[in-house]
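Design a sequence for this backbone.
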């Protein structure tokens, strides 16, 4: 019995959709790549979130110079890590299998303070300050060397992130900037009362460096940064 034209068209569309995304080896990157054809509504940012890579990695793999310009039907190579084969389990000795090795120690935030609003000149204080960033100095100052008003600070820290979707919370009075791996995640470099901001973002698995910059004008001095896994 002959197939109807409608059924034949449905089969063709199904095949096209299956071929629209393929995982193929990539000799140049030493890994695997997703071959993707751009569809209506796609952006590089959307594809980066979907495939857990950065926009810059997609742009570099495809020779894209304008991150805001892709077109429908464009063929994109999206770098991906090839799945590794699972190692064969090894028999344990009589005294039992060893546990997993301990992770690296958590490094503290390294803080630098200036007695001006623009992180300029010689700092008046540098010190480690623990692994959390949650301060409410009120009308006081972080230390005796630092002014109660008209001071600025920078905190730097790197740590291992499990990878996945996170919600970032930033609380400040006054100005603040937050960077991850040199990329600006949030900026409100203004004089304002206590304000809380949140943003959802994807963070790839691995070590990442974070930098927080802050200035205090007058009155209350508040700064907080936290991440919650979704």
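Sequence:
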């Amino acid at each position: 019995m002959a197939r109807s034209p409608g059924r034949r068209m449905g089969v063709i569309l199904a095949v096209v959709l299956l071929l629209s995304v393929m995982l193929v080896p990539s000799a140049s990157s030493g890994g695997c790549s997703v071959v993707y054809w751009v569809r209506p509504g796609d952006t590089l940012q959307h594809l980066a979130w979907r495939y857990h890579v950065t926009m810059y990695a997609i742009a570099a793999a495809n020779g894209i110079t304008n991150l805001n310009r892709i077109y429908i039907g464009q063929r994109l190579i999206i770098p991906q890590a090839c799945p590794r084969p699972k190692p064969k389990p090894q028999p344990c000795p009589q005294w039992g299998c060893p546990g997993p090795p301990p992770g690296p120690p958590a490094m503290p935030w390294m803080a630098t303070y200036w007695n001006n609003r623009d992180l300029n000149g010689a700092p008046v204080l540098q010190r480690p300050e623990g692994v959390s960033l949650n301060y409410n100095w009120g009308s006081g100052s972080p230390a005796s060397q630092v002014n109660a008003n008209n001071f600025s600070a920078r905190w730097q820290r790197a740590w291992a992130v499990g990878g996945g979707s996170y919600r970032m919370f930033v609380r400040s009075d006054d100005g603040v900037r937050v960077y991850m791996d040199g990329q600006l995640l949030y900026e409100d470099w203004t004089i304002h009362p206590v304000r809380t901001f949140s943003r959802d973002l994807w963070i790839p698995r691995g070590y990442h460096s974070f930098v927080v910059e802050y200035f205090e004008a007058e009155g209350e001095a508040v700064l907080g940064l936290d991440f919650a896994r979704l």
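Helices lie at 5-19, 44-51, 55-62.
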